[in-house]
Specification:
Pfam families: ACOX, ACOX_C_alpha1, Acyl-CoA_dh_M
CATH superfamily of one domain: Butyryl-CoA Dehydrogenase, subunit A, domain 3
Strand content: 5-15%
Cofactor: FAD
Largest sheet: 6 strands, mixed
Shape: globular
Pathway: Lipid metabolism
GO molecular function, one term: pristanoyl-CoA oxidase activity
Oligomer: single chain
CATH topology of one domain: Butyryl-CoA Dehydrogenase, subunit A, domain 3
Keywords: FAD, Fatty acid metabolism, Flavoprotein, Lipid metabolism, Oxidoreductase
Distance between the termini: 70 Å
Number of strands: 13
Bound molecules: flavin-adenine dinucleotide
CATH class of one domain: Mainly Alpha
Radius of gyration: 27 Å
Length: 659
Amino acid sequence: MEFNRNTYTNITYFDSKELELFLFSQNGLDFQTRLNEELKQYPIILNDSKKIHSLDEQKRISAKTLFMLFELKKKFFKEISSNAKLLKLWVYALYSIEPSAGVQFGVASDIFPNSLRRLGTEKHKEIWKMGVEGKIIGAFCLTEISHGSNAKLIQTTATYDIKTKEFILNTPNFEAAKCWAGNIGMIATYGIVYAQLIMANGTNKGLHMFLVPLRDPETYVSYAGITIGDMGEKIGLNGTDNGFLLFNNYRVPKISLLNKLADVDDDGRYIRHLSSKKKRFGVSMGVLSRGRISIIGISNNYLRHALTIALRFANIKKNTNGAKNISKLENQYFQHCLFPYLAVAYVIDLFIDHLFIVQDQFMKNTTDPQSANIGIELHAISSAGKSVIAWTVRNGIQKCIETCENHAYVKFSGLSNLSANHDANSTYEGECHVLIQQAANWLLKLWPNILNRKKINFTLGSVNFLNDAFEILETKFNINCLEDFIAPDNILLHFQWLICFLLKESYNKVTHLSSIKMKYYAKNESQVYFLKPLAVAYIQAFILRRVNIILLESSGGVKKILTKLLSLYGIWCLEKHLAFFYKGGYASSNNLIHFTKESILLLCKDLKDDAVALVNVIAPPDFLMKSMHSLEQRYNSLQQPFDLSAAVSTKTTNNVSKL
Ligand SMILES: Cc1cc2nc3c(=O)[nH]c(=O)nc-3n(C[C@H](O)[C@H](O)[C@H](O)COP(=O)(O)OP(=O)(O)OC[C@H]3O[C@@H](n4cnc5c(N)ncnc54)[C@H](O)[C@@H]3O)c2cc1C
């Protein structure tokens, strides 16, 4: 098949300033300038990135930065809490300044107080306020040695004592020791602890959250009945004091129970406040989405760091090709390695604005009748989104490392730190493989409605096209020119067919296996080639759909370049699913494969002259990147010029004298 290049123009004129304005808004750019000026006032931020600090020193720097971040947040709080774009820039900054402190701050200023606010009541308000203001540092203690993802089976117990009106916390065995909680190792004075609520008559009411005092705020010594400590050296985020925690008949007052959804009265009766279990579940799922949505932004921040280093480096590094020196950016392999990730960084940058807005509206209206409907859809979006973006960014950073060759291996390039620090995003706030299953499970439950022609209607619009599933499944791939193929609207149509197909196939597979074995095994054996690709395609398509809508507000060169990046993102994602289109009969000739491969290469090639300008628009400021992009900078930064010949001759002399 031949492509008609005349119908497709590879020249895109865009103004970097206009692009910046579209991504961040004027308000956002002003905010960023003020934030950067403010940050430069703190010597701890401008510390020497080349120095290798001891573990204790890393923890000290991170804790100091944490308190600085609270100070900083006070100055910018109003702005970031009312504007999604500013919130995005704030999250980016947090994880550019010092990722370990970013994690500590995320737990102390967000997860800890927001759990109190959303699931606690008036009784918890004072501690919530102190948490928000950084007057106390809190932790979030869910994970245990034996149970992380499978939270329902967590073993820590909180037994109600009617006589004293207290809960008695216990760690029944070593497997039930709380572990990994950020801030627990050294600085947290309070923790939100997940425990099985045991009533006085011995009945277990399931997992509940308790606000638990851990350490004396004056001395930081833990209270009697608590064993607490630091996890030790990790592969990354070593400034964060992840810790462990065990209870031995540790008593806390009755008000410790976060009692918005359920409570225990003075006489020891259990009372549910929300009558519908379904509604309770939907609302709490939506509340838990907050952290995962932030992680999508945090992951994207790591990606923009890594891409900035790799693309700027590529811009100065030449490939020797015979007598001619040509830029690495000309290299097809290089383009294919990095440009799809550049597209991801842009697409997610726009997508995260949408998620922050939706999450904010949801949190403000958790008692709204629609909240359970939004909460459960948001849970699927944030679970699949966090997983797919964390995996994509992990691969993207690795590609950046490979394209920088030996220079990435130098610690001060910053790339190895990005990789090590980012890795934890696949684990905390829900392990990605487990989260992707949760999104798939929700999708699976929708299919019987479709089979019974029962209309589904979800507020965020990620699945409503399934109402037309039978018509969609009848469609075939019938695109004949490249221009049509790369249009995001058309890419979306392929995705919709794919999701309907994978959902139908997954449902049939699970139903068939369920007739011969337990449901758990039926689902378990349908993961790899059915449910996982279903949830991955679902979120990739939703991102494409949302960003395509956002681009309706753009125009001119900005619209052109962003559409090109969105097309590359969409087709690159689609490529991983090609086999399904043939398996399901959507495509029969080799057109789809051919168009896919050619358009990816073509779009990458078209971006080669724009790649550095594009990455500069989303690049973190140099003073936060702390990466040296070239040996030249490294040499210039040395106070004493490094005299290689002198070093060699000294060594030789020494060796000779030893001999
Ligand atoms: C830096 C860092 C900070 C953290 N901070 C906190 C914190 O502040 N508070 C806190 O409570 N926890 C924290 N955690 C812990 C984190 O939340 C857990 O590691 C996470 O929930 C996963 O639980 P797990 O480690 O028990 O692993 P598991 O859930 O046991 O998972 C281990 C492996 O088994 C697989 N697996 C598990 N279940 C299934 C399944 N059903 N189907 C298929 N595969 C499965 C997973 O895919 C994974 O590969 C932190 C972790 C890290 C690394």
